[in-house]
Amino acid sequence: MSSVGTDEIAKISRRIRACNYLSVAQLYLRDNFLLERPLQFDDIKPRLLGHWGTCNGINVAYANLHAVYKNDPDFLFVLGPGHGFPALNANLLIDGKLAEVDEKASPDYYGIKYVCHNFSWPDGFPSHASPMTPGIIAEGGELGYALANAYGLALGHPEKTLAVLIGDGELETATALDSLNLRNLLTGDRNGKVLPFLHLNGYKISAPSIYARKSERELNEMIRGFGFAPMWIRGNDPEDFQEALGKKVDSPFYILKTEKGESGPNRGHLAHQIPLKNPASNYEELKKLEEWLKSYHFEELFNKEAGFTL
Fold first, then answer.
1. Right CATH number for 6-308 from 3.30.70.2190, 3.40.50.10470, 3.50.50.60, 3.40.50.970?
2. Residues 237 and 257 sit within 8 Å (Cβ to Cβ)
């Protein structure tokens, strides 16, 4: 049974599209942020730095969890693959969280312009999550600590619910893998609830992840061995995600299986960082970038007068 209603399912899909658009815009654009005219070479940043491949999965997880927990002040989303910072930045922009620490990052046209232009830009936002961002305590390139940090925050705080998104490459680190044992130490009603989500998108920077090569049965048995109940979410459909959240099980461990780079121009390890390398000088790539951005139909989700219509 879905944990939210039909109207909310539609809102989740719209939010994912909006955040995917904003993620791509941050990576590439220094002008023409709403595509009010055809893209030109001068609209593209001279140096492209950032990571796209994980962004769609982050946006899927964040949007679905936000729909359920948005009114819970004791809920926290913990992001393991902080190199997917454009996705986190997009969600924080829409929710007005960035504006709480930087009034220029407002959830309107001027905030979109400010955030997109200044992503991976001198004196602007870094390419990875950093402590300048609300809720961030570690630099986003340091994979492996998210689950341990979440369990630490849950310790002695029974009111807390923490959802932790863990990259499949990240789970190969000793810290992340050993953190699965913390479930056995934080049982009982004196501690908060930790909800691990493995983002199984198949690839690391240049090769398949170990967990992508395991069979579902083998991965399930490994997770059960740590005391969790594996719960699969296959793809981007919010109904499937909400159905999984709505099932009442003890110690769930969610496996979100999406394609790396999904909704972009290529897939797998080729999508890990910048999928289109030269849109500032290659006309064919420039048109592919424009088609990519237009595929999200951002004009249906935002306009200058009304702002976000999600």
1. 3.40.50.970
2. no
Domain boundaries, the chain: 6-308
Burial of 230 (0-12, 13-18, 19+ CB in 10 A): middle
Q: How far is CA 148 from CA 164, 169, 185, 187, 220, in A?
A: 10, 16, 12, 15, 21
Average pLDDT over residues 95-117: 96
SS3 163: strand
Helical residues (DSSP H) of 126-270, grouped into ranges: 146-154, 174-179, 210-213, 216-225, 238-246
pLDDT tens-digit series, residues 158-179: 999 999 999 999 999 999 999 9
Contacts (Cβ under 8 Å, ≥6 apart) of 122: none
Q: How far is CA 11 from CA 69, 98, 212, 242, 264, in A?
A: 14, 21, 30, 13, 21
Q: How far apart are CA 229 and CA 240, in angstroms?
A: 17
Q: How many CA atoms lie within 13 A of 214 on its CB side?
A: 16
Report the DSSP beta bridge partners of residue 119: 125
The predicted model scores a pTM of 0.96
